[in-house]
Predict the 3D structure of the following.
Amino acid sequence: MAFHSRVLDGAVEKPVLAMQERMLGVPITDRNFREISLRHDKDDRIFWCFMDQTGRPSYTYSLGAEIQQVQDWIANNYTMPANGGPDDLRYFVCGSKTPGIYNLGGDLRHFAECIRNRDLAAMRNYAETCVRMQYANANSFGAPIITMALVQGDALGGGFEHALAFDILVAERSARMGLPEIIFNLFPGMGAYSFLLRRVGRKIAENFILEGKIHSAEELHELGIVDILVEDGQGEAAIIDYCQRGQARFAAERAVYLARRVASPVELEELLRITNIWAETAMTLSEADVRKMERLADAQERRIQRSLKPVT
């Protein structure tokens, strides 16, 4: 049984279900994905999921649908106790294959269209889909594993929120993270407040959101937001080393993160109520705010096109 329920509209949900039915019994690493690439290092008990988008690396419905397949596969295959099921997956790592970018956040063009059309239902649908996935991330998909985000570039807006949901946030030194939504008079509504509040407290979390500043990985490591800071290009190797060294204490470490969730839980209802505030606030944005949103999307797309040009 899947750990979380989807709220995608029918136009997206039906193809996803049909695809899952066709792929039943096929190893997840053998499936034909367009937005992600996977690797399962069974000897090290690490499952790697890399966002691998050809366009603007943002949280689109298509990316979300593929990530949900991975979440559901882990929930369906690894929710048994450690001594009652396969023991070839103890660590889940989410990273990105886009050079210099982890994820740039929400689908800004979709937001602009919804706001202009006064389509609150569509905004809520997108946001609720994202926070249900965030809730699954924050709870290890219901499986007895430890989860990590590997940030090797920019993690902005929803991309940063995504990284905050995992048990451990690993970042390379040149990575940058921040919540720029204040630029267009909005706030990050898909987990940032909840996850930052529990890491650094109310005052720092609110200043972080309202200032909209982009921070270096080193700054965030000093604040305690980044858990492990590594040198550029060493992210994967550092995680492999961490996991190899941690095998002997895995049960205790996992129990500590479970205790963290008990002591300071992030409940689904909290995430849903906050994201509804986000959707309702989005509907109040002016045309000038929406144009700023679109200009940011334009700038991000120009950056991606520059990075894709072959070096001559």
User: Anything to note?
Assistant: The longest helix spans residues 287-308. Residues 1-24 have pLDDT under 50 and may be disordered.
